[in-house]
Amino acid sequence: GAGNIPVNISVDTMPAGHGIEAVLDKGTPGERSEKKFGAPYQFVFFGVPCGEHTLSACRITITGQRIGEFVTVDRVGVGDIIVAVGDSITYGEDDDIYTDDWSADGRNGPVTDIWGTSYGGFEPILNNLLTNAKGYPHSVINEGCSGDLAYRGLDRIDGILAKYPTAGMWLIAFGTNDSNHNVSASVYESNLRSIIARIHAVNPSAKIFLPKVFYWPKDLVQEYHGCMQNIISSTPNVCMGADLETSFKQNHEQFDHMANAPGTWFSPVKTHHPNGIGIQKMAELWRDAILSAI
After folding, report:
1. How many Å is the Cα radius of gyration of the chain?
2. Cα separation of 79 and 51, whole Å?
3. Are 246 and 62 in contact (CB under 8 A)?
């Protein structure tokens, strides 16, 4: 795969007749350079192979003579951008393992909520898993928000798209809170379809994944899963995501509330969030779903 690297260089003052040279992967067989005389100093390197790259810049004369030292930025990544949008489960609430809160490349880390609490979530772990599997950089963005229903995700999606218009994959995970609030299957499906339509209006080729969510013990979630199948069968570039429901039913110890209710599937006395081990499992399930679909 390949992508484009846009570059915008800010310059306070520039002597007359001088400009900027931007160099991609300086000193390597794949080195490329672009020169620009006159602000704005904006460049685009097209068709850059997926991987980690360097970007260097220096001042030049009108004849192209380089002046002074290069300023270099290391680890400019070209790879996959994935955005996870959902509720507290996507956000990572009750993640109690802190040693995996940052991805190995430092691109993804803990997210702080409005109350000042930070959780790592599955996103940094998924970054590591996909980067290792595919051999090039990933960024998995955490746009989870505690308490969100699908209609709130719809309210937020335009703002998220404005931040990540080129994201090629989206993990859209709503349903647990919709079930708790008795949102009908038809309304739930309509909200999901609207979210998907907004994403595809910005990036028609974006691949969207819908997971089988886990839930308060209500039959509504089973209806929601049917809605997802309807959407997947009728909408291009929409795939089934991680099967969270089956996994957590089979692995109670990975569910946060099980500490207060051993031997049961659901207890209202605590929460319906995966613990740190469960968060790691979620990342593995998402990795498997993504790799099987691309």
Report:
1. 22
2. 6
3. no
Under 8 Å between Cβ of 43 and 72: no
**Cα–Cα distances in Å, from 38 out to 11, 16, 163, 186, 189?**
10, 9, 28, 56, 51
pTM for the whole structure: 0.88
Of 133, 93, 132, the closest CA to residue 113 belongs to: 93
Going by the DSSP 8-state scheme, the letter that residue 274 receives in this structure is: B
Residues 259 and 134 in one domain: yes
| Phi and psi torsions of 101, nearest 5° | -75, -15
Question: pLDDT tens track of the chain, all 294 residues?
Answer: 789 999 999 999 999 999 999 999 999 999 999 999 999 999 999 999 999 999 999 999 999 999 999 999 998 999 999 999 999 999 998 898 999 999 999 999 999 887 788 899 999 999 999 999 999 999 999 999 999 999 999 999 999 999 999 999 999 999 989 988 999 999 999 999 999 999 999 999 999 999 998 765 567 888 999 999 999 999 999 999 999 888 877 776 776 654 444 444 444 434 578 889 999 999 999 999 999 998
> What's 108's domain CATH number?
3.40.50.1110
> Cα dihedral angle (119, 122, 128, 133), rounded to 10 degrees?
180
Instruction: Say yes or no: 133 and 249 in one domain.
Output: yes
Q: Are residues 70 and 118 in the same domain?
A: no
Apex 138 CA angle, 40 and 281, nearest 5 = 150
Pairing of strands 66-78, 138-144: unpaired
